[in-house]
Structure formats: C-alpha cells, structure tokens
Write a sequence for this structure.
C-alpha cells in the first residue's frame, strides 16, 4: 500500500496508489482541486473543460485530468506525480504518474504547472480562460504590446513583491504581467512560459494571448487570491478601456499629516 | 410494466410507462435533464421557460415539456419517445410518446432535437436563448451575414472537427456556425436547421437569428461543453465588437524551438 | 382559530391569524413569496430591500412587508388581507389586514399590487428595481418616449396576448410596455398605474421611470416567467442600444416550404 | 472565564476570551461577519481578501482579520476589542484586543471601522472593493470631482437622511457621497475619512479613489442595505455614463390628482 519511493509507476502491479487521492480532510489536495475548480466554474474561469488547477504538496503534484467538466470533478479523477522522479526523466515530454484515474488523459497544462513548481517553488498554479484575461491580451495586441501594466489601484496590493521576496506590492507600484503568444499545442507554451519567468523573475502570472492566464503562488491561498485579484484588475482594465480611462497614471501620493 | 417494444403508445391502457423516468441514478436522462436545465437557468440560457435540452439513450429520446420553468423541472415532467417508432410515423408533425407527463404539452423544440439525433446521431441537444447568441445574430444581420466566424482563440479547441471525424479543432482553425432566419413557429425551423446541417456537415451548432442557438454532441458531456464553449465565444465576440476588435485575424503561428 | 369571515381585523382579541402564514406546503403563498424573493435577490431585482412580490389566492392577498431584506424573508413576515373586505373600505388608502407580522410596516407597493389583482384578476404581481428596467426608462426618456417597443425577438413569445385573451404573442408581434413617471411617494403611483392599465388593456407590465417595473400574471408561474422574459428583453435592449442596433425592425417573415 | 471588564488584554494568562466568538445564534456578530462576507464575495465586493466588515455590539467591536479569504472565514478568525478600552489607549495606532485569532494579523481597515463606530455611533461598517465603486471614482477623477452626486432614482430612498435624523432620502433628493484620495497605507486613510465625516455630517458612506467604498449604518441591516443600494447606484451610474446619460437631472415632480 505504500507508494513507490522512486516515483516510478507501479508497473506490472495492480496498485494504482489510489490512497494518494483518498482523504477525509477537505484541505487535502485531491479534495481541494475539485472544490476550487467548482468555484472557478461559477466565475467563468474554466468554461467548457478549459483551464484548471494543480497543487504541490512537498514532492507530490496533484493534477486535474484533460477534458473533464471542472465543476463535476471528483478526487478520483486526479493524477499524482513525483517532482523528483519527473526530474530524472530522460524526456521533458514524458511523464510518469504515481497515480492515474482510470478513464482520463493527462492535461496538456501539466508541463506549465510543473514550470511554476520547479522554477518558482510554487505550491499551487491556476490556469483560467477568463474572458477578461483574453480581452486584455486582445487590447494589448492592438497596441503591439507584450506587457499588461497597471498602477495606482488598491487591488494591486494583492500581489507579492516577487519570488523569495517578502511583502506585497504597494498601491502606487506598477503591476507588470508579461504576455506570451499562444501556440497551436498547449504543451509548446512551456518554453515561452519559462522564458517569461526568466525575463520577469518577480511575476506571479503570465498572460497567454487569445487564451487566458497562468497564475501561481507559494500555496493554495496565495495562488487563489492572486488569481482573483488579477481577474479583478483585468475586468477593471477592460471597463476602463471602454470608458476611455488610462491604465497607467501619474498620481501624486497623498501624505497623512497626523502623527499619532 | 414492460414498455411496448414497438414504440407505439400504450393505447387503451392506463400504463403511461412512468418507470421510464424513474431512476435513482443521477446520470439517468430523466434526472439529468432537470439538473442540467437548473444549471442552464443560472447561466441565463433558459430564462422564462425558453430553451431546453433533450437526451437520447439508444432508441429512447427524453424531452422537457413546453412552458415549464426550467430550474424547477422534475423527472416526472419528462416526455419519452422512440426514434424507431417515430421514423415509422406517417407524418413528421405527429409524434407518438411512450411516456407523457400528466399536465404539460410537448415542446415545439422536439422536431429540432430529433433532427440532431437522426441526422447527426447526437446523444444530446441543447437549445439556449442566451442573449450573447442573440446579440451575435443581430450584429451579423447588420453585416448581411449568415455565418458566425471566429479564429485564433484557444476556446475554439472545445469543438470536435465534425460529424464522424475524430479530434478537435485547433487554435488557428476558423470555427464557422451557420445562422438560419427565425420562423413564426418554432417547429417550422426544422427544415432550415436540417438544410444548415446538410450545407455545414461538420457543424455542431446552428444559430437562429433573433432567437438563440441549437448545440449538440455525441453525448451529454460533449453537447454541454460545446454549448459552454460556444456561449463563451459569443460573449467574447460581442465584447470584441464593443472594443472594435475583429473576430477573424491573420496570426503568424508561434513555433516552439525546443525539441525535447 | 378560524379567520374572521368579514375580513375585518380581529380587534380586541389576541388572535393574529398566524395560521394563515403557517404551512408545510412549499407552494403555499406564505412560503412561496420568501423563496421567490430570495431567487429575485440573486438576479439583482430586489437589491437593498427594493422591489417585492405579492400573491393572491382567491380572496386572500399575501404581501411582503416594507424594508425587509428580500433574501432573508420568512413566512412569519408576511401580511395577509382580504380583497373583499378591502373593497368595502371607505378609504383607498386605509387597509385592514387579517394577519400582520409583529415588527414590520406594510409595503408602499401594496396598492399597486392590489390594482393588478382587482383590475386584472392577477394571481401574482412582481415589482423589481432591475437596473436593466431603469436603464430602458432612461434611454426612452432621452427619446421623449413613454412606451418601450420591441419586435422580432423570440423571447416576446413569453407574454400572453392580453387580459382574458388566450394564447401568447408571436415572434413578429410588437411588445409594448407603457412607462409611467415616478412619484415621490410610491403609493401615489397607483392612479398612474391604473391609468396605464386602462390605456393598455392587454399589457402585463408597466415600467416606472427611474424606478423599475411592475409585472403580473394570472398565476405565480405566469407572473414570474413574464417578469423573467421582460428582464431578458430589457437587458437585450440596453445591449442593442450600446451596439447601435434598433429595437424595432421590419423583418420579412420566413415561410416554411415543407408541408408534412 | 469572564472577560476582563477593563477591556485590557488578558496578559500573562492563557485566557483568550474565545467565548466571545462562540455562539449558536446565527445573528451573533462572530457568526454574522463570516456569513455576510461569504455573501459579499459572491457579489464581487471582497475579491482576493480585499474589503471586509465589522460589527459593533454595545462596547464590543468584532473585526475580520487581515488577508483572509472572505468566503471561507470562520467565527474563530474574528478579533474582538472594547471601544471604551481603545478610547483610553495612549496612541491611536495601538490597539488592544480582548480576543485575537491564533494565526492572523489585525486588518488595516480597523481604524476606519472604528471611526464609523465612534464618530457616527454606527452598529456595522462594510468596506468593499466593488469595481463599480472604483470605476465611479475614476470617472469622477477625470472630471476633477471629489463628490459622487445622483438624483431622481428610486433606489436613493434606500439611504437614511443622516446621522441622528429620522427618515430616508426622497426620490428627488440628491445623494452626495464624498470621495477621498487613496493613501499608500490603508490606516493613513483614517484622518481623511474622519475629515469627510466632519465635512459631510449626514453621509453614510465615503468613496476612496481607485480603491473602493466604506459604508456604515446604525445596525447590520441598515449598513448592508445601504451598501447594496449604493453599489446598485454605482453600477447604474457607470452604465449611464456608457450610454451618455447624465447623473443629475432636473425632473418636474409628478403630482397625484386623486385624493382618497
């Protein structure tokens, strides 16, 4: 009943390590991914099986399968793999799962989630097809831009300052989210996502043109609240555009006079 | 208690085949149609008794009645008919039901659902009055167009390539959905829907001008997720129109450089 | 324990006829008004205690109180009055209740609901502050118009042809909803609502400028589905306006060729 | 087990006064704050840990902690402080809590909530990041304005006339909500909020530029319904702006002719 410590699949056995996705704890990743995805469905982030979420607990990575209705997902639908075992794999494109669901295929988002875990030590990564995210990339495309930039909005404080930095962005700081071009196959996005991570070492998100956004955080709480804050800002940005209001402004800070 | 094997109605008997809509299985069509329609109501797809859904299980077709509040539907409200028996009927407009609810009338959508089942071997067909769908048909009307066309959006991958073809559309593919003109009586749409199916053999949906959309799929999962993806694209298209962004673009594919 | 048959209040007694609002049947008006209002709250129709609903069951009229949070209402909050007793009242502005909740005040909407019951024999009347309704009245105000008119939209079929007429409007019919000007006190709207009912004998709804809409029907089902259909059309109309699309068009009917 | 009557923290003891947040009554502030915040989350008011709510019950003030997901809050997450003890504090910026949750930090909103309690004797104060509120402040910024003004909309009646005044605003009254500039640190807003309260003695809300809104009321019911009414008006105002409709108009009152 113990999982293979090497992280290699339990070949030639009938043991599928189902215990890895069986828990009474609602905070267990195999329970949390379905409940998060059901919530994301109501927000329009994972419409029509698009988008998803992955959680890392130490060496173990929990992943939703491909093509599942996100509001109907069950813990038994979840894939589990070992980061350490994956790192030893000869090919980046081949993945070995500790536990697989009986009927599904692995998600094409898998290598993108893994990039957040390996390059950023993230504890959770969320991918949405939010139409606010897509509209922002379309507006930026018309401007020939590969960066979403917004400043002087309170909700910007919802983001951490960056990888291995403590504290959050401030109200007057400019939040910068890189945009990468979409590829025909989602797996092929991986190198461009990693490139963006290298170029923007402090970002917690990467927009994908005409596709959506990847957002991560040190843990589920941070990934989810950063993803919410970002979607809020994307929606605000689209509405500001419709009203002719600029995303970047030069605001004189308001200084408190009282010292008490 | 056994249903008539001929599919003809149990005339001169009091047997209404109620067992056909009685099941403890939430995946049984008589349970699934009410739960799907309740969900669709929250999405604004079946407002004010408009719209609906039908499921085919082998030869049996399960149908919501006319004029029912879609979020309050019960399994006992469901009609059941036999496709084989219907095919033997002398008139297309006369339908014989294996099972009828006690108080309702059959839906005018019935022949349109049957078209998806007989001409496309669909397992489920959904009809929505989504205002995004209606707005798209109005925008196209102003352009004198009878086709919704959009390309280079990730969500397009949510659609199958076409009838009896395997695989899904790609990111760069153009999704084409025909638009038919609305008729005074919904049943009269049938010939135009069938015509559109003939002219667009690979489409899984037909827009109805100033009315809504019919979407089908090989099974409930595919019909529902295609319907969600389409509604997402209709909403995006309306918002793109408001922002002055074109639905069809010429995007240079982004080619991955890494071979691993 | 029997209610006073005269419909006069049970003066000098401690009997408040609480049994009139106590029932295990979810379809009982005292249970239905709270559940409907909770649903309407999620639709944005009864924000901030605005709006409401009333049901008539024979001679008895069930009413929500003033100033209650609509999504939190309880059966014990409901007022009950007798139409017959009310008709004998010397003053239109004085109302005698068979049953009153212990802490609330009667709603200012009461005489408007009563107008629908007495002049139209309605079984249910709904009042919303839907911002789609308000926006439609504002757009019409700029055009100097006192009528909302829309045609050639499928959802128009959601309305009955008119008082004591059978059947519903058709797709090509023009739905006409009169607009009355708002008054400082909601009770004062009554005469203008009644005037509009006289001038538009077949309407099931009256818009109130900068305020919202009153919608009724022969029963709860019809009032609710007509209210939903109307809100759908108001939303569509605002979006059409934003896209520069006209509400009234001249559409050539599409005639079916097949006779089968 | 009795709380310190001085309101000072129970130093050198292990007693954290947890009983202050333990109750079976759903109307107890420690239960009400989580259920209200969960509702506000669905309205988009407290996205990504932004915003919050505080309730005062006599001398005791109940506060949500900083950085918590508002739809997941639990009674055990709540801070409690004594207004009287706080008033004796040497520094405005130092606060002593009767009861603190084990893992969180106090919210930066705390002094702003306290301002509503001490300067207005409010029973509840709500802070939202509603994007309608933010958009209104952005539109006003472009106009160089520090006041949101709207009149002749029915929902304006949802507001009280002012501090220690009885009755509500009327339909033709102009609702005026002051706008203060945002500061880098939320606590620093306090003096500007208090300044706005002094300058606008009858307001129940203060907008914060590019940030959101603070709304209070004599009790939870009033704070919540005023906050809902205000958000409704902000949304309407943004939509009116998009349609080119003015917020302030000169409307001739409609006078009833009937005297009965």
């Amino acid at each position: 009943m113990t999982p293979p410590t090497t992280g290699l699949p339990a070949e030639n056995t009938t043991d599928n390590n189902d215990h890895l996705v069986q828990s009474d704890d609602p905070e267990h990743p195999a329970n949390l991914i379905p409940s998060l995805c059901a919530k994301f469905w109501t927000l329009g982030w994972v419409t029509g099986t698009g988008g998803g979420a992955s959680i890392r607990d130490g060496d173990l990575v929990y992943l939703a399968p491909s093509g599942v209705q996100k509001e109907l997902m069950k813990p038994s639908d979840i894939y589990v793999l070992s980061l350490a075992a994956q790192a030893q794999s000869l090919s980046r494109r081949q993945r070995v799962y500790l536990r697989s669901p009986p009927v599904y295929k692995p998600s094409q988002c898998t290598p993108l989630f893994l990039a957040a875990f390996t390059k950023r030590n993230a504890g959770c990564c969320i991918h949405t097809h939010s139409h606010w995210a897509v509209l922002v990339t379309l507006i930026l495309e018309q401007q020939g831009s590969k960066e979403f930039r917004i400043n002087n909005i309170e909700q910007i404080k919802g983001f951490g300052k960056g990888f291995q930095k403590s504290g959050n962005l401030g109200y007057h700081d400019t939040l910068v989210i890189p945009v990468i071009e979409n590829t025909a196959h989602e797996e092929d996005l991986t190198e461009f996502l990693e490139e963006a991570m290298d170029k923007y070492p402090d970002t917690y998100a990467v927009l994908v043109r005409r596709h959506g956004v990847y957002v991560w955080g040190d843990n589920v709480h941070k990934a989810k609240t950063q993803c919410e804050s970002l979607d809020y800002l994307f929606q605000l940005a689209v509405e500001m555009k419709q009203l002719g209001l600029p995303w970047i402004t030069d605001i004189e800070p308001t200084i408190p006079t009282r010292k008490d």
About this structure: Residues 238 and 244 of chain A are 10 Å apart (CA to CA). Chain A touches chain B at residues 44, 47-50, 69, 91-93, 129, 131, 134-135, 138-139, 142, 181-184, 188, 191-192, 208, 210-212, 238, 241-242 (CB under 8 Å). The two ends of chain A are 62 Å apart (CA to CA). Residues 1-13 of chain A have pLDDT under 50 and may be disordered.
